[in-house]
């Protein structure tokens, strides 16, 4: 039996450990950055309380940069001025956030 398809915007954000396992080039970094932003804006969890782990220094640097870019895009989106590759993701996640 195949596991259910992963949906970044709709996967439940339950307190737990989430493991993403997939082949290279499948969007893991994108998904992890999106989950990170969702946890902050939809659950109110401070970034300092989130732990993201990957396996190599290069992957760590890429993931750190992607998360930072997404956080900046989300902040810019809230201010009404946003553009960039992940801007649609930031806007979509913010649309799903509670009003406050």
Summed up, what is this model?
With about 100 residues, the chain is mainly alpha-helical. The chain has helices spanning about 30-45, 55-80, 85-95.
For the secondary structure, the number of strands is: 0
Q: Work out the helix count.
A: 3
Largest sheet: none
Order of helices and strands: HHH
Structural class per helix/strand content?
mainly alpha
Gross morphology is: globular
Query: What portion of residues is helical?
Result: 40-55%
Mean pLDDT over the full residue set? 83
Low-confidence stretches: none
Features of this protein?
single chain; 100 residues
Architecture overview:
There is one protein chain. The relative contact order is 0.16. By secondary structure, this protein is an all-alpha fold. The radius of gyration is 14 Å and the shape is globular. The protein is built from three helices and no strands. It has helices at residues 28-43, 57-79, 87-95. The longest helix is centred in the last third of the chain and has 23 residues, at 57-79.
Annotate the secondary structure layout.
Layout: H1 28-43, H2 57-79, H3 87-95
Helix pairs in contact: 1-2, 1-3, 2-3
